[in-house]
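The protein record reproduced below.
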Amino acid sequence: MSATPNRLARTLQRIEALPALLRQPARNLALRRAVPFTGTAGLDFVALTPARTEIAVRNRRPVQNHIQGVHAAAMALLAETATGMVVGMNVRDDCLPLCKSMHVDFKKRATGAMRAEASLSEQQRASMRAEPKGEVTVTVVVTDEAGVNPVECEFVWAWIPKTPKN
């Protein structure tokens, strides 16, 4: 099987061939169209590879809570999107990724903008390429502008065969 196993990874690989100035806006446009809620929240797709993703959100009014920090739901969305993108770049085209569970512990008050980095091991990626269904716990680290980890998250993603459309 190829190093870019699915349509999402191939699309992102084509975007990486664009001039540097156009890559980020093209990535954001493509992914916000595919998953409209990420555009509503203003998520910024900083880095996307089959092994690692990095996604950011600015602390701006539409995602703020009552104390002008990034809202808890926006933090969870940020972490879920980072884990979902890294899984989405590794599942086969004949499979569908699904978030099976998420656990988010809020540890400290967040300061400013936030960033989530999710990754998969080579063993996890190989399993997703080889197996028609399974599940994986995805590592994600969420940091705020001060470099603090205000939340600890664990996401379990499953992948299952797509059912044919009738």
